[in-house]
Amino acid sequence: MRLIAVVSALLLLCVTFSSTAFAETKTPYWVIQDLRWWANDKIPVTRAEPALLWIGVKENIKMTLVDGPTQIPPSIKNDTKRWNFGEISNVDFFNKIKSGLKDGSIKISSKSKFNINDYKEREFSGFSPLFRTFAYKKDFVTVNGELAPRDIQFELRSDQNETYKKLTVNEKDAIVIAPLFTKSAYDEPGFYTYYRGECSTKCLTKKIQYANPYGYSGSSNALKVLNLLGYKTITDVGVDTNPAILSKYKKVIVLHSEYVTQTEFDAITKHPHVLFLYPNALYAKVTANYQNDTVTLIRGHNYPDKEIRNGFNWKLDNSKFEYDSTCKNLNFTKIKNGKMLNCFPEHIIFSDANLLKAIKDY
To answer: What is the rounded CA–CA span in Å between residue 35 and residue 15?
Structure first.
């Protein structure tokens, strides 16, 4: 609903890793996601090259370059799929990747556009006492004459281990829904191009943006931070294709899932213990076509009739709170099947230990 974003199978979409393994491998969220999408044929190998090269450079591995396309053994792809299911630990999986880069079984195209200078880390004023907060050089843009990061990265801090013990969860207890459909809807030209009257209804069908950063509209900061703390993550696609999976978890955490399918809406609202961490969730109804990987608006957000707001006629819609991003009066309201936060926490979730503790304790 926010008009300006600030700067088929379950196989693809259950993302799980422990905070301990994540810290040991020091592998950022974007590397993990890109390898998963590649293994499930949602992005081409050229889009996975930066992830492999990032690992190689960080580990000081002398990699094998070839004139043709990047070559990855089928066994590595199979291992990546097994890793998706949790059959291989993070540590073991990344050791396999490193071994493949070292022994030359993974061969990288010499034509790759990866530039290590783009991934130089810069800390900035968004300092957090809980996590090391930084951005890559490539992700800084000029806003009002000053450099600002459009995508933030987080890493565990060695001096916060005692705090992490209080905030880390058992991955079997909770699952976080990554708002992939919402991120796709916000990608321009898209749903908001139509809302502004700058595009026909053709913009109400969008390619699912598997490879793009999630950004502000897609709760990127929350996804990265909660994953560092051990939360299991599933995308909209995972819920839509297998809604019963939510029943396996004691609690479900919903982020900025503004656009969801009827199946996903039903699965979330029927679960007895849901934490709606972002206002404006479950606002508009979409359908997904997994043959061509598109998502289409069906109802809501003044479509197809101007008087239609919530596409599900959901009486608990709390979208009126979405514009409060300072969260100075942060508070949870109890509802029939859970709790709702009264502000948009994307700018504070990486620095507010009390909020993270409340999420864990819910």
So the answer is: 11
Asked which of 98-112, 138-152, 282-296 is least confident by mean pLDDT, the reply is 138-152
- pLDDT by residue (tens digit) across 66-90? 999 999 999 999 998 888 766 887 7
CA distance 237 to 267: 13
- pTM value is 0.84
In a domain, 348, yes or no: yes
Q: Are residues 152 and 212 in the same domain?
A: no
* 296 vs 203: CA distance, rounded Å: 9
Query: Two tokens at 92?
Result: 């073991």
Q: How many domains does the chain have?
A: 3
Q: List the domain range (segments joined by +) for residue 147.
A: 120-157
Task: Tell me whether residue 4 is in a domain.
Answer: no
Q: Are residues 263 and 131 in the same domain?
A: no
pLDDT single digits (tens) 96-133: 999 999 999 999 999 888 887 888 888 776 678 999 88
Cβ-proximal residues to 179 (8 Å cutoff; 6+ apart), any chain: 214, 217, 218, 219, 236, 255, 256, 257, 258, 259
